[in-house]
Amino acid sequence: MFSAIARVFRTPDLRNKLLFTLGIIAIYRVGVFIPAPGIDYSNVQQCLAMGETTGGLYSFVNLFSGGALLQVSIFAMGIMPYITASIITQLLRVVIPHFETLHKEGQAGQAKLTQYTRYLTIALALLQGTTLVTLARTGSLFPSCSLPLVPDDSLIVILLMVITLTAGTGLIMWMGELITERGIGNGMSILIFISIASGFPSAMGSILQAQGVMTFIGVLLIGLLIVGLVVFVEQSQRRIPVQYAKRTVGRRTVGGTSTYIPLKLNMANVIPVIFASSILALPQMLVQFNQNDDGTLPAWAMWLQEHSSTSSPWYMLAYTLMIIGFAYFYVAITFNPVEVADNMKKYGGFIPGIRAGRPTAEYLQYVISRITFPGALYLAFVALIPLIAFVLFNADQSFPFGGTSILIMVGVGLETVKQINAQMQQRNYEGLLR
Questions:
Q1: Which residues contact 430 (CB under 8 A, 6 or more apart)?
Q2: What is the pLDDT of residue 256?
Q3: Do 228 and 408 touch, CB atoms closer than 8 A?
Q4: Residue 35: beta bridge partners?
Q5: How many domains does the chain have?
Q6: Model pLDDT for residues 248-270, shown as the tens digit of each residue
Q7: 98 in Cβ contact with 116 (< 8 Å)
Q8: CB 419 within 8 A of CB 428
Q9: Contact, 80 vs 189, CB < 8 A?
């Protein structure tokens, strides 16, 4: 393994790409700790030391920003606006025919969709930045902390903060695209990976300090098992064999080859978990903005607060059902069996034992519906691990080995290693992995 890594750095082109990627990552991590203008950094640190935040959606966004959100830094919004914009653009293909047409136009259409995603990212960053500044100015970001986070809440300072947070998101988006173009791997995914990985030491340190060495070792062993499970499932495929008939084109005979359609067990990736987490965080936000003047809550808000807690069995049940539902929904809009069957028929391909055309589409739909269910159960199981750990170990709700964090880290890690391996095999007979 070490010789393979040394071989990577001995390849000049690959070494330059790796160093460029590491340089962008270093700049990104520095920006996480630069406070936004108008923020009292010392008061923010004191409020963070108290250990209480708004939780819910903002703790979820804080995970993707590498801790920048709750520090109200210039990169506080992180990559989350871009993720949301990408998902919205992808979903709009179902309801807006123009977006679907652009998707089928190849590279030119994809470039146009990417431009729309950028515009939507800036708009969402502006909206989320305004919300974050409002929470920081009113003290709702840290309800248990009475220290002022924004000493000067004049209009000029508020506008400057919102513009800075929006510009920070634009800069992160640009850096991610630079990594994709000139570095290794998908830039946006790499930045998300780094943001999540940066929280592992503090999460494990809190477990060691609060629960002791034996629990710490037990969590590490459980973590290794979970990582192995995630790697196994993420690499699992249902391969559908496809045979192409021989055709005569001019004086040449083409076709007659055998291949397969690889259908992943988890085709929805981490998107259903993100959808379910975001929706189930809304009740907590609704409770927060419906307090009485004396700080008490109405009866309906108290009931909602009690049953929307992450340790509530009702929350876990709703979380599981929503993940399963969103898994089927997302697979349905991203994989079109009719389109796949038509393309196979167009190029003379067929599944052995299945007629081309509509029977092929029905067979693909049958297979997809069968493999989506275990994939959705797997997603729900991994997503519930932090909630169960919070109940059993009294660990922090950002328990590292589970939920979106481990799914994203393993997925991005596997994809990046594959890209490095492919580039190594282009230059040497041996890749990174044997």
A1: 4, 7, 424
A2: 65
A3: no
A4: 73
A5: 2
A6: 666 666 656 788 888 888 888 88
A7: no
A8: no
A9: no
* pLDDT tens digits, one per residue of 276-323: 887 877 777 676 666 665 656 677 767 777 766 777 788 888 889 999
DSSP string across 371-383: HHHHHHHHHHHHH
Residue 15 has pLDDT above 60, yes or no: yes
For residue 233, is it within any domain? yes
Nearest residue to 429 (alpha-carbon basis) of 9, 4, 1:
4
Written as six digits, the tokens of 142 are: 């840290």
Question: Does residue 67 lie in a domain region?
Answer: yes
Enumerate the β-bridge partners of residue 254: 247
Same domain, 69 and 168: yes
Question: For residues 200 and 219, what is the distance between their CA atoms, to the nearest angstrom?
Answer: 12
Q: Would you say residue 127 lies in a domain? A: yes
- Give me the helices (H) in 198-244, please: 200-211, 213-234
Using DSSP bridges, classify how beta strands 349-350 and 237-244 pair: parallel, antiparallel or unpaired: antiparallel
Pairing of strands 247-249, 237-244: unpaired
SS3 254: strand
Q: How far is CA 70 from the centre of its chain?
A: 19
How many angstroms separate the CA atoms of 226 and 199, rounded?
Answer: 18
Q: Which residues share a beta bridge with 258?
A: 243
Which candidate, 206, 192, 212, 133, places its Cα nearest to that of 413?
A: 192
Domain that holds residue 115: 1-198
Q: Please give the Cα distance from 47 to 193 (Å, whole number).
A: 26
Strand partners, 253: 248
Torsion of Cα atoms, 217 then 222 then 223 then 226, to 10°: 170
